[in-house]
Amino acid sequence: MIDNVYGGNLLKGEKTTLYFRNGLSYKKWLKVHCKSGNDDMGVHYLKPGGIDYTFSVHDNVFGGTLIWCTLSKGPDYKVSSRFDAYKQNNDKAHGKSYNYLAKDDGIYHSNLVEFKLHKKFDWK
């Protein structure tokens, strides 16, 4: 990697933070597993009403940054939803934040441009 004189990386673009929250009922745990083409963020288990799982990514200055995640619930985490949680789009502002809330009926999303949570993905 190439670092500039200030210690930054010239190939790093805008930073975006992804937040995942467990909003499931009946004290159900949520399993979150996210990956990119280069990294595996590992498996994280979120307890009901617990701390959010967060991580940040930097856009590639050449484009193409993609993070996909699988959220799972239920006995043995057999009910899940796999989706692109972040896809770099330099033409669309998103406020540097992607927020995901897992509820019993699906996965809800918001960002700092579109504040209101809306259902984006179903469980399968």
UniProtKB/TrEMBL annotation:
Keyword Lipoprotein present in the record's keywords: the answer is: no
Highest taxon above the source species: Eukaryota
Q: Endoplasmic reticulum: present as a keyword of the record?
A: no
* InterPro entries found in the cross-reference section: Self-incomp_S1
Compartments it resides in: Secreted
The alphabetical list of record keywords is: Secreted, Self-incompatibility, Signal
The record's similarity note reads: Belongs to the plant self-incompatibility (S1) protein family.
Q: What is this protein called?
A: S-protein homolog
Phylogenetic lineage = Eukaryota, Viridiplantae, Streptophyta, Embryophyta, Tracheophyta
